[in-house]
Amino acid sequence: MTFEFVNLYLSTILPPIILGVIIWKTDRFQEPAHLLLASFLIGFSIALPLDLLIAITHHVIAPVLNLNLEIEHVKSSEVTVAEVAFMHFFRAAFLEEGLKFALLIFFCARLADLNEPIDAIIYAAAIGLGYATMENIGYLYNELGKCADQDCW
């Protein structure tokens, strides 16, 4: 049973890390590893501010726009196009990508090692892969939580 959990965590964490190393190594003028690791960890840490922004979105902005984002309503067939668009385009895409872009601008753009256009792409990839790792771990915990009620193995 423990070996299966180790495999689950490795299969969750390793792909973004391997992609990050491949991206780093393909750069002709490689970026410092500590700055890429910092960018990766900053991308990983997006969870807390993103959760705060999502809570503000659900409890402040959605009611002002007269949108019902309660879970029971969203899972029903009575969902409007505006609610679906709000959930997918504003909440998911705009908030997540906007936060990653803000991190790229406020952290990476000030680095002295950001001296050619490809460097911004590499730092953005590190931030995105850090966020993808955090999101993968969240999906894994969600599925393991479902397995607490039933035998998934």
List the keywords.
mainly alpha, flat
Short summary:
The protein is an all-alpha fold. Helix content is 76%, strand content 0%. The model has no long low-confidence stretch (mean pLDDT 84).
Account of the protein in words:
The chain is mostly helical and 153 residues long. The chain has 6 helices and no strands. It has helices at residues 2-26, 33-44, 47-64, 71-74, 81-106, 117-147. The longest helix is centred in the C-terminal third of the chain and has 31 residues, at 117-147. It is flat, with a radius of gyration of 19 Å. It starts with a helix and ends in a 6-residue tail after the last helix. The relative contact order is 0.17. The model has no long low-confidence stretch (mean pLDDT 84).
Q: Whole-number radius of gyration?
A: 19 Å
User: Residue share in helices?
Assistant: over 70%
Q: Can you count the beta strands?
A: 0
Secondary-structure element pattern, one letter each:
HHHHHH
Can you count the helices? 6
The unreliable regions are none
Helix/sheet category: mainly alpha
